[in-house]
Amino acid sequence: xxxxxxxxxxxxxxxxxxxxxxxxxxxxxxxxxxxxxxxxxxxxxxxxxxxxxxxxxxxxxxxxxxxxxxxxxxxxxxxxxxxxxxxxxxxxxxxxxxxxxxxxxxx
Length: 107
Prior knowledge:
Elements: H1 2-68, H2 73-87, E1 97-99, E2 104-106
Antiparallel strand pairs: 1-2
Helix pairs in contact: 1-2
InterPro entries: GAF-like_dom_sf (IPR029016)
């Protein structure tokens, strides 16, 4: 009788601990999956930001290269306008110059 009682009590205690550990592992797995999901979102966002920065730097390099390859103001302004429209995702743009002597803007 005493041996059976100890075995039964020990088995019940073991089962309870096993169930508790199983619940803890399930919770840890859930938290790990949530953390992994948030990390994937952060990596995706950061990758997008880095690509955008790279694209802008590339455009700035192209602008500086184009400006340095010509001395004509009209060509320089066209290059700046084209790239400004591109980098800002605008449909179109314009450049207006200000004549300080006559105090008016012109295209």
